[in-house]
Specification:
By secondary structure, the protein is an alpha+beta fold. Helix content is 17%, strand content 38%. The chain contains eleven helices and 36 strands. Strands 29-30-32-31-33-34-35-36 form an eight-stranded mixed sheet, with helices on both faces. Strands 5, 6, 7, 8 and 9 form a five-stranded mixed sheet that branches. The protein has a four-stranded antiparallel sheet with strand order 1-2-3-4, with no helix packed on it. A hairpin with a 5-residue loop joins β20 and β21. The radius of gyration is 25 Å and the shape is globular. The two termini are 31 Å apart.
């Protein structure tokens, strides 16, 4: 492995370009652990159409509220308590109405087992009188067992209606379009899907432009347009997992917009599907080694630009003046993830969320006419530049020469130029088709605040770096994917930065599997192993997907591509079958209602380690799902991880 100097590439955040938001260095200040696990104080902010106000969710004394923030003069009014619901997003429909999409955890019995799922809901709040209407709740003939009623696909404020997707009470249930009154919440079906409909594109007046379908029994994805009173197929493709889904519309309304892989697999590009004949054209807006992570659209789903993946996001807007403004703002914050959240129709005011560097998630509103920021608020008010540990992007070569990107978080208050023999937390991400970037991370920051260095490697199989990189991880669980994590840890040991006797591996979901794989397959490397909601037994995991989703489902096909379906191949890379190899103590944490990775995966691992006479601790969080979202349970999760790590590699 070639030498790489971590110290030489480190840049400390001491300020930003003149005219921007400034931060300063000061002595580090340690915060209580609950400040990291608590929900953000402000989140899901959205800009009003005139740019004078913001709507968002505020967390106050354990409860969440919808609040309205005036920009000039600054004022706040909290209108509605969210209660037991978890708000997922807010958005202005017009100056007087705000939409909230929220979820509530529901529990049902499935055979002999109780399971939970998130059920979505949509609400409209009248800002004049504070009245709340639940959308679709006064609608007949809705299928009772759908996963919620919160899929909004458009609105027509002039007519006072919202367009929503929901399944009708037929057999099989069909995904239909409903026109819903903002004033009463009552909906009426205006367009009906067929047995395989998965999505729609509408004109602003609610007329259908396109119907999207996937027949997973026959592995056929197809698109239809209206032809009189019937539907005509304009595009069809045989595939077990659709290679794209419809995202939005071209500006001339003549094409649907999709994102798919380029032919060489190095990137993704923008493609247009003609609504007249289904012809696919593209790719456009390709950035080598990056993926189009998000299509930026207006309220009518007309494309305005794209956001690219990367350790910090980048943008390409179709309008040249909009592109110049967006990139001017992004360039003010080097090494920071600046996410475009919202904008006014005239593009005079833009709302960004800044995360990473000195920012814990800071909302800012930029006014183009005055070339100044007119509003800012930290989403986590307890955090200042002084108590946020600095991050660094690094790259290193894996043992087979593949370049790996990683995020390194330095211990708070440590001078990288003088650092040596630090305790290390290796923290592989979940997914595995996800990636870590330069942004505030509630899980890595508390460890860094207590003196630990944190390594977050974007191992092969991660998304964000092109499909070739993602596919390089297929069937490499416990093999090359794990080697990438091992090689990153070894780099830091070789650099003299890390004490080889004080290394712990901690992960969630796929990261939990990687943590257990580290303990099983490189037992000399780690002094403790912690897995949250991790997989331990791959043969049992793929069998679970067969039982619950079915062998013909795209879900099963996805996991089959990930690691296969042959027990003779999977047992050698399943930590459950290698409990004897562990040398480090193990901590297992899991939600009792996890339907992504069943808690039996941790229970089996615990039993195997006990049989092998290995030290293991386990905690099941009752009524919690894969993400362990509830406030007290998330604190207990973080607290258990911190105590475990401190016990085994702390001072």
């Amino acid at each position: 492995m070639p030498a790489f100097s971590v110290r030489a590439s480190f840049v400390r955040f001491v300020g930003l370009v003149a005219g921007c938001l400034l931060v300063s260095e000061a002595a580090s200040a340690q915060l209580p652990i609950e400040e990291y696990s608590n929900p953000a104080d402000f989140r899901s902010l959205d800009l009003s159409p005139d740019g004078e106000r913001l709507a968002g969710i505020r967390w106050i004394d354990g409860n969440e509220y919808l609040c309205i923030f005036d920009i000039d003069p600054i004022a706040q009014e909290c209108l509605v308590e969210i209660g037991e619901l978890r708000a997922d997003g807010t958005g202005y429909i017009d100056e007087d109405h705000v939409l909230i999409i929220a979820t509530e955890e529901q529990a049902r019995m499935g055979g002999s087992r109780r399971f939970t799922f998130d059920e979505s809901r949509a609400f409209v709040i009248d800002l004049e009188d504070g009245e709340v209407e639940t959308l679709l709740h006064r609608t007949d003939n809705l299928y009772a067992r759908q996963g919620g009623l919160g899929r909004v696909i458009g609105s027509n404020p002039d007519e006072g209606v919202i367009y929503m997707l929901a399944y009708s009470d037929s057999w099989p249930p069909t995904q239909d379009v409903f026109e819903v009154s903002m004033n009463s919440g009552r909906g009426r079906r205006i367009h009906r899907g067929d047995d395989y409909t998965t999505g729609w594109l509408l004109l602003p007046n609610g007329e259908p432009l396109l119907r999207e379908n996937f027949n997973q029994e026959e592995d056929v994805y197809y698109l239809e347009v209206r032809d009189g009173r019937s539907w005509e197929v304009i595009y069809a493709r045989n595939e077990a997992i659709p290679s794209f889904t419809i995202q939005g519309l071209s500006e001339d309304l003549q094409s649907a917009v999709v994102v798919r892989d380029t032919e060489d697999g190095a990137s993704t590009g923008l493609y247009f599907v003609s609504l007249s004949d289904g012809e696919l054209s593209g790719p456009f807006l390709v950035e080598e080694g990056k993926e189009i992570e998000r299509i930026i659209m207006d309220g009518d789903r007309i494309i305005l630009g794209v956001q690219y993946s990367g350790l910090t996001p980048s943008y390409h807007m179709l309008n040249e003046s909009h592109d110049a403004v967006v990139n001017q703002i992004v360039n003010m914050f080097p090494g920071v993830s600046a996410t475009l959240v919202d904008w006014t129709g005239d593009w005079n005011r833009l709302l960004f969320l800044l995360s990473g560097g000195p920012y814990p998630g800071t909302y800012v509103v930029y006014d183009v006419s005055s070339q100044s920021f007119v509003f800012q608020t930290r989403s986590r008010t307890a955090f200042t530049p002084e108590n946020i540990a600095p991050q660094q992007a690094i790259t290193y070569e894996a043992r087979d020469g593949l370049e790996i990107n990683a995020i390194l978080t330095w211990p708070l208050g440590v001078d990288p130029a003088q650092a040596s023999d630090l305790p290390l937390i290796a923290m592989p991400h979940g997914g595995p088709e996800a990636y870590d970037k330069l942004q505030f991370d509630w899980l890595s920051q508390p460890f860094a605040s207590r003196g630990y260095m944190v390594l977050q490697p974007n191992f092969r199989g991660s998304s964000g770096f092109g499909q070739n990189f993602t596919q390089a991880g297929h069937r490499q669980w416990g093999r090359a994917m794990q080697d990438d994590v091992t090689d990153g840890v070894q780099l830091l040991i070789d650099e003299g930065l890390v004490d080889p006797e004080r290394i712990c591996i901690v992960g969630w979901s796929y990261g939990g599997y990687s943590a257990l794989a580290g303990g099983a397959f490189t037992p000399e490397l780690y002094n403790c192993v912690a897995s949250v909601a991790g997989v331990s037994d791959l043969p049992e995991m793929i069998a679970f997907e067969r039982r619950t989703a079915g062998r013909e489902s795209w879900v099963y096909e996805y996991w089959n591509r990930q690691f296969g379906d042959d027990p003779e191949v999977l047992e050698p890379i399943s930590p459950y079958y290698h409990a004897d190899a562990f040398k480090a103590p193990v901590l297992l944490l899991h939600g009792s209602y996890d339907t992504v990775v069943p808690p039996e995966q941790s229970e089996r691992m615990e039993a195997a380690l006990i049989r092998a006479g290995k030290p293991v601790e386990m905690q099941i969080f009752e009524d919690q799902n894969h993400s362990i979202m509830e406030e007290s349970a998330r604190f207990q999760t973080l607290d258990a991880l911190m105590r475990f790590v401190d016990t085994h590699i702390g001072e």
